[in-house]
Predict the structure.
Amino acid sequence: MIITFADLPGIREKHKGQKIVLGGGAFDILHQGHIDYLRDVKTLGDILVIAVKSDAEIKSYKESGRPIQNEDVRAAIMDAIRYVDYVLIAPGPVGDEMPRLAVARKLKPDLVVTVSEKWKAYKDDLKALGVELKIIPIEKVNSTTSIIERIHNRPDA
Protein backbone atom coordinates (compact mmCIF):
# COMPACT_ATOMS: atom_id res chain seq x y z
CA MET A 1 0.00 0.00 0.00
CA ILE A 2 1.36 3.40 -0.94
CA ILE A 3 1.28 5.82 1.99
CA THR A 4 2.49 9.32 2.76
CA PHE A 5 4.87 10.67 5.39
CA ALA A 6 1.84 11.84 7.40
CA ASP A 7 0.49 8.26 7.52
CA LEU A 8 3.52 6.86 9.37
CA PRO A 9 2.31 7.23 12.98
CA GLY A 10 -0.90 5.42 12.04
CA ILE A 11 1.09 2.49 10.64
CA ARG A 12 2.92 2.14 13.97
CA GLU A 13 -0.43 2.27 15.81
CA LYS A 14 -2.12 -0.22 13.46
CA HIS A 15 0.64 -2.79 13.88
CA LYS A 16 1.19 -2.67 17.65
CA GLY A 17 2.84 -5.86 18.80
CA GLN A 18 4.30 -6.55 15.36
CA LYS A 19 7.91 -5.96 14.39
CA ILE A 20 8.11 -3.14 11.85
CA VAL A 21 11.16 -2.97 9.61
CA LEU A 22 12.12 0.12 7.61
CA GLY A 23 14.22 -0.25 4.48
CA GLY A 24 14.74 1.92 1.48
CA GLY A 25 16.62 2.83 -1.63
CA ALA A 26 16.33 4.34 -5.08
CA PHE A 27 14.94 1.24 -6.85
CA ASP A 28 15.40 2.97 -10.21
CA ILE A 29 15.63 -0.02 -12.54
CA LEU A 30 14.48 -3.08 -10.64
CA HIS A 31 16.94 -5.98 -10.70
CA GLN A 32 17.77 -9.20 -8.85
CA GLY A 33 19.79 -7.39 -6.17
CA HIS A 34 16.70 -5.37 -5.23
CA ILE A 35 14.54 -8.48 -5.00
CA ASP A 36 17.15 -10.28 -2.86
CA TYR A 37 17.36 -7.26 -0.53
CA LEU A 38 13.57 -7.01 -0.15
CA ARG A 39 13.20 -10.74 0.44
CA ASP A 40 15.96 -10.80 3.05
CA VAL A 41 14.76 -7.67 4.85
CA LYS A 42 11.18 -8.98 5.02
CA THR A 43 12.41 -11.99 7.02
CA LEU A 44 13.62 -9.64 9.79
CA GLY A 45 10.13 -8.59 10.88
CA ASP A 46 6.40 -8.75 10.35
CA ILE A 47 5.77 -5.50 8.46
CA LEU A 48 8.12 -4.07 5.84
CA VAL A 49 7.96 -0.35 5.08
CA ILE A 50 10.06 0.86 2.14
CA ALA A 51 11.06 4.51 1.80
CA VAL A 52 11.77 5.17 -1.88
CA LYS A 53 14.29 7.95 -2.45
CA SER A 54 12.76 11.03 -4.02
CA ASP A 55 13.78 12.22 -7.48
CA ALA A 56 15.40 15.27 -5.87
CA GLU A 57 17.54 13.14 -3.55
CA ILE A 58 18.73 10.89 -6.38
CA LYS A 59 19.55 13.89 -8.58
CA SER A 60 21.69 15.28 -5.76
CA TYR A 61 24.23 12.45 -5.99
CA LYS A 62 23.76 10.54 -9.25
CA GLU A 63 24.86 11.42 -12.76
CA SER A 64 22.75 13.52 -15.09
CA GLY A 65 19.60 11.84 -16.36
CA ARG A 66 18.92 9.91 -13.18
CA PRO A 67 16.61 8.66 -11.96
CA ILE A 68 15.47 6.87 -15.08
CA GLN A 69 11.97 6.37 -13.66
CA ASN A 70 10.22 9.01 -11.58
CA GLU A 71 9.46 8.54 -7.88
CA ASP A 72 5.76 7.75 -8.41
CA VAL A 73 6.60 4.94 -10.86
CA ARG A 74 9.29 3.55 -8.56
CA ALA A 75 6.88 3.62 -5.60
CA ALA A 76 4.19 1.82 -7.63
CA ILE A 77 6.67 -0.88 -8.62
CA MET A 78 7.71 -1.38 -4.98
CA ASP A 79 4.04 -1.56 -4.00
CA ALA A 80 3.56 -4.48 -6.40
CA ILE A 81 6.25 -6.61 -4.76
CA ARG A 82 4.90 -9.20 -2.34
CA TYR A 83 7.56 -8.67 0.32
CA VAL A 84 6.61 -5.00 0.77
CA ASP A 85 3.70 -4.00 3.01
CA TYR A 86 3.93 -0.19 2.77
CA VAL A 87 5.74 2.20 0.45
CA LEU A 88 6.27 5.92 0.67
CA ILE A 89 8.40 8.44 -1.13
CA ALA A 90 10.89 9.72 1.44
CA PRO A 91 10.61 13.45 2.09
CA GLY A 92 13.37 15.86 1.23
CA PRO A 93 16.13 16.27 3.81
CA VAL A 94 15.27 18.06 7.02
CA GLY A 95 18.35 20.22 7.61
CA ASP A 96 21.33 17.91 7.19
CA GLU A 97 19.34 14.83 8.21
CA MET A 98 19.01 11.91 5.81
CA PRO A 99 15.44 11.61 4.50
CA ARG A 100 15.06 8.03 5.73
CA LEU A 101 16.09 9.14 9.23
CA ALA A 102 13.15 11.57 9.18
CA VAL A 103 10.94 8.60 8.22
CA ALA A 104 12.36 6.57 11.11
CA ARG A 105 11.66 9.42 13.55
CA LYS A 106 8.02 9.60 12.41
CA LEU A 107 7.39 5.83 12.09
CA LYS A 108 9.48 4.58 15.02
CA PRO A 109 10.08 1.15 13.48
CA ASP A 110 11.69 -1.61 15.48
CA LEU A 111 14.49 -1.96 12.97
CA VAL A 112 16.10 0.12 10.22
CA VAL A 113 17.91 -1.98 7.64
CA THR A 114 20.37 -0.50 5.19
CA VAL A 115 23.30 -1.48 3.00
CA SER A 116 25.08 1.83 3.62
CA GLU A 117 27.81 2.24 6.22
CA LYS A 118 26.86 5.96 6.38
CA TRP A 119 24.08 4.97 8.77
CA LYS A 120 26.59 4.25 11.52
CA ALA A 121 26.65 8.03 12.11
CA TYR A 122 22.96 7.85 13.10
CA LYS A 123 23.13 4.79 15.34
CA ASP A 124 22.83 6.85 18.57
CA ASP A 125 19.90 8.86 17.14
CA LEU A 126 18.09 5.64 16.30
CA LYS A 127 18.91 4.06 19.65
CA ALA A 128 17.40 7.09 21.41
CA LEU A 129 14.18 6.38 19.48
CA GLY A 130 14.28 2.71 20.51
CA VAL A 131 15.15 1.69 16.96
CA GLU A 132 17.77 -0.92 16.13
CA LEU A 133 20.10 -0.43 13.15
CA LYS A 134 21.19 -3.34 10.98
CA ILE A 135 23.64 -2.88 8.13
CA ILE A 136 23.53 -5.82 5.77
CA PRO A 137 26.05 -6.56 3.07
CA ILE A 138 24.63 -6.43 -0.42
CA GLU A 139 25.82 -8.78 -3.07
CA LYS A 140 26.23 -6.84 -6.25
CA VAL A 141 24.33 -9.27 -8.44
CA ASN A 142 23.58 -6.26 -10.55
CA SER A 143 23.15 -2.53 -10.23
CA THR A 144 21.10 0.06 -12.03
CA THR A 145 24.31 1.81 -13.09
CA SER A 146 25.78 -1.40 -14.54
CA ILE A 147 22.54 -2.10 -16.42
CA ILE A 148 22.61 1.40 -17.92
CA GLU A 149 26.27 0.96 -18.90
CA ARG A 150 25.54 -2.37 -20.60
CA ILE A 151 22.68 -0.78 -22.55
CA HIS A 152 24.93 2.09 -23.68
CA ASN A 153 27.75 -0.27 -24.65
CA ARG A 154 25.72 -2.71 -26.72
CA PRO A 155 27.60 -3.30 -29.98
CA ASP A 156 24.38 -3.15 -32.01
CA ALA A 157 23.11 0.07 -30.40
Summary: The mean pLDDT is 89. The first strand starts at residue 20 and ends at 25. The chain has seven helices and five strands. Residues 32-42 form the longest helix (11 residues).
